[in-house]
Design brief:
By secondary structure, this protein is mostly helical. Helices cover about 85% and strands about 0% of the residues. The radius of gyration is 39 Å and the shape is rod-shaped.
Length: about 90
């Protein structure tokens, strides 16, 4: 009989110390919210990294085009100066 009372007392203490169902649900909702925030942050990092990569690729293409235009002007500067017209 004493053993049964001790077991009942032990189980009662465990039941009273255990979080209630509502508390467990709150913890589960908070955990789900943190997971969603983590996924959103990961998505945002990927989006920003992709945007930066695209921006730098476009910037490189524009710089190459500007260099190509500058080279065309440099070629014209390397040509000999035109001779002055002859006087008759």
């Amino acid at each position: 009989m004493l053993r049964a009372l001790r077991e009942l007392s032990h189980r009662l203490r465990i039941a009273l110390r255990a979080p209630r169902i509502e508390c467990a649900e709150v913890f589960q909702m908070q955990r789900a919210h943190r997971e969603r925030e983590h996924l959103a942050a990961e998505y945002a990092r990927g989006y920003i990294n992709g945007w930066r990569e695209c921006f730098h690729t476009c910037l490189d293409a524009v710089e190459e085009e500007i260099e190509r235009v500058d080279e065309a002007w440099d070629v014209g500067a390397m040509l000999p100066a035109p001779k002055p017209p002859r006087k008759n």
